[in-house]
Design brief:
Structural class: mainly alpha
Shape: globular
Distance between the termini: 31 Å
Radius of gyration: 22 Å
Order of helices and strands: HHHHHHHHHHEEEEHHHE
Largest sheet: 3 strands, antiparallel
Number of helices: 13
Number of domains: 2
Length: 287
C-alpha cells in the first residue's frame, strides 16, 4: 500500500490536475499489490486495470434491467459490449490466478492475499478454493473496492483543495506519522478520518441502491411497503436532507466532533451501515 501511494504521489505535479484517473489507478494498484504482489505497471496487471476501466465506462447510467428483469434478455448492443469486457477481465484474472497456483505448487509463492486464499482449507470440508472460485473472489474485490475507493479519494482531495485550512490540518496530522511503518498508527489520524467521513456524507460513491422487499414492512411516516416491491434508497439524498442535518450542503469535518452520536449520525449516515442491512425485510436486488 505504501509503494502504491508513493507511485501515486510521484505522478502528481503542481497546478490543476484531474485527480480521478490517478485515484482510480491508485486503488487498482493497491488491490493488485495486496492480492498478487504485482504493481500496476506489470503487463497483465495493467491490462486488468484497463479492462476494468472499460467495463465500468460501458455500464449504463440507469440500469433498467435491475427494475425490469425481462430487459436483461434483450440483445442490446451495450449488453454485448459489457459481456465482452467482463469475459476479458475474467480471462486476465484467471491467468494471474493460474500462475499463482503454479507458484504455490513450486513452493515459491509470496505470502500475499492470493496465496492465503488459495492455500486455506475450509475447516469443515477440508477443500480449497478452486480456480473459478478464486477468480470470482478477485472480481468481487475489484468491483466492490476499486471505483468506490477511487471516487471517495477523488472527492476528498477535491474538497481539501477547496478548503485549504482543512488541508493544512490534515497535513499537520499526517506529518506526525512520517517515517512510521506501523499501520496501527493510522488510528491516530482522527481528523483525517473525519474528512473522509464528511466526504462520504456529501459524495457517497454509491448515490442510490435498489432493495427488494422480501416481506411486508413499514417505512417512514407509517408508509406500508408490499412484499416483492422495489424501493430505492438514496444515501446522497438522505445525507443532505435539511430536516435531518444542520447545514447539510456544507463541508465540515468537525461535524462529527460537534455532534457525537446524534440521531443523524446513527440513523442517516449510510457509510456506517452501507448495505442497508438495518432494513431486515429487504434484500439486495440482483442486477
Amino acid at each position: 500500500m505504501q509503494a502504491a501511494a508513493d507511485a501515486f504521489l510521484a505522478a502528481l505535479s503542481p497546478g490543476t490536475a484531474n485527480v480521478e484517473p490517478l485515484a482510480s489507478k491508485l486503488a487498482a494498484d493497491v488491490i493488485l499489490r495486496t492480492l498478487f504482489s504485482v504493481p500496476i505497471e506489470d503487463k497483465t496487471a495493467s491490462k486488468v486495470f484497463d479492462a476494468f476501466r472499460t467495463y465500468q465506462r460501458q455500464q449504463p447510467v440507469a440500469n433498467l434491467a435491475a427494475l425490469v428483469p425481462a430487459l436483461r434478455w434483450l440483445p442490446f448492443w451495450q449488453n454485448r459490449r459489457v459481456k465482452r469486457s467482463a469475459l476479458e477481465i475474467r480471462r486476465l484474472i484467471t491467468h494471474l490466478t493460474h500462475m499463482r497456483q503454479d507458484q504455490i505448487a513450486a513452493g515459491r509463492a509470496p505470502q500475499d492475499l492470493a496465496t492465503r486464499l488459495l492455500s486455506t482449507q475450509d475447516p469443515e470440508t477440508g477443500t480449497r478454493l478452486s480456480l473459478s472460485e478464486m477468480v470470482d473472489q478477485v472480481m468481487i474485490f475489484f468491483l466492490a473496492g476499486h471505483e468506490t475507493s477511487a471516487a471517495a479519494l477523488s472527492w476528498a482531495l477535491y474538497l481539501l483543495a477547496r478548503y485549504p485550512h482543512f488541508q493544512d490540518q490534515v497535513a499537520q496530522e499526517v506529518s506526525q506519522l512520517m517515517g512510521s511503518d506501523n499501520f496501527a498508527a493510522m488510528r491516530n489520524l482522527s481528523f483525517t478520518r473525519d474528512v473522509f467521513r464528511e466526504t462520504l456524507r456529501l459524495y457517497p460513491p454509491v448515490p442510490m441502491m435498489v432493495r427488494e422487499v422480501k416481506q411486508r414492512g413499514e417505512v417512514f411516516r407509517g408508509r406500508r411497503v408490499p412484499k416483492n416491491s422495489l424501493i430505492i434508497i438514496s444515501p446522497w439524498y438522505v445525507q443532505r436532507h435539511n430536516r435531518i442535518w444542520e447545514r447539510p450542503d456544507e463541508f465540515d469535518p468537525l461535524r462529527s466532533q460537534e455532534m457525537p452520536a446524534t440521531n443523524c449520525q446513527r440513523q442517516a449516515f449510510f457509510a456506517i451501515f452501507f448495505r442497508a442491512t438495518h432494513l431486515p425485510w429487504c434484500r439486495v436486488r440482483d442486477g
